[in-house]
What does this fold into?
Amino acid sequence: MHEPLSLKPASWLVAAGRPTAPGEPLNTPLVPASNFILGQEQAYARDSGTPTWEALETIVGGLEGGRALAFASGMAAVAAVFDQLPADAVVVLPDDCYQGVAGLAVAGAQKKRWSVVRLAVEDTDGWIQACAQADLVWLESPSNPLLRVADLEAICAAPRKPGAIVAVDNTFATPLNQQPLKLGATVSIQSATKFIGGHSDLLAGVATTQDEALWQGLRRSRELNGATPGTLEAFLAARGARTLALRLRQAQETALFLAERLAQHPLVSVVRYPGLPSHPAHATARRLLKGYGAVLSFDLRGGAALADAVCQNTRLIRHATSLGGVESTMERRAAIPGQEHLPPSLLRLSVGIEDAEDLWADLEAALQAAAR
Ligand SMILES: *Cc1c(COP(=O)(O)O)cnc(C)c1O
It folds into this structure.
């Protein structure tokens, strides 16, 4: 296979992880196997992987710039990173991040497995200081669902405790917009459920690192916890990744268009999208991100009831959780148990690849209908 850096990302996404020998299938083979005839590299899939998982790992690892491991879900990859921590570890977590990660961290703290410190996403000095003491520095940027942006460059370069892990949840940016390992992060996490897979039809996760000992630790954790991806899921995630560059380019172009339109709408009080010059961390986003992503959130003048009504009135945009699919989805995040701290009318919109004018017409009509 080609060297990762010899191809531009869009070509790599198409070419990587395919068979190359004459007579082999053109496509990544779907290999449903728990075990392999001894003497081959693979022996038992839960330990040593399968060619189908490896194709996904090759694709994502090449983009992230490290050696990747595929997991059953994004949270399985996250849990494998937390699994590396020594006793009495200190974990530093952003004040806005994926709720599952916060839930895992808090649950472990309640069982006295580690302690958790939370810092504001933008508190760069605080993060740099925390790096000196933390065993796990957990970053997520842009963050979910407030689209806040951390100075990953400064934080990943800060001196850290020996053996500490700096992990970046890179799901929103995808490795096309941001490569945390190149900034000095130890491990980058993708929920491949989202943009990598891109079709809302699977659960999978990927962790990528340049640290061989950490890779071995993660692989061992995947083996002992049985956090392995399904064969079909890994196949579908790799297949979805073939079109990631096209999908993301279209979706983030439309996201900016919708963010600009929403910002001018009288019913909208705030639009959060790192690509808007009015975003508080737009300068940081411009410096660190190749693209601003396909997720935005906005608040309404009118509270939760109005926001719920908007969700009920869209037709093209589906009222659904999750993100990163070809179809646009929207939901009111404060309606989710445990997310009541969020602004009550905040709507998170994951922009798909539908026609931008159709999406705006749908949103505008829903806003109008809801306000009636
Ligand atoms: C969805 C998501 C996860 C968790 O991934 P799953 O595949 O659902 O387990 C983690 N981080 C972010 C930012 C996500 O959006």
Notes: Residues 73-75, 98, 100, 140, 144, 169, 171-172, 191, 193-194, 203, 205 surround pyridoxal-5'-phosphate (CB under 6 Å). The mean pLDDT is 96. Residues 244-263 form the longest helix (20 residues). DSSP finds 15 helices and twelve strands in the chain.
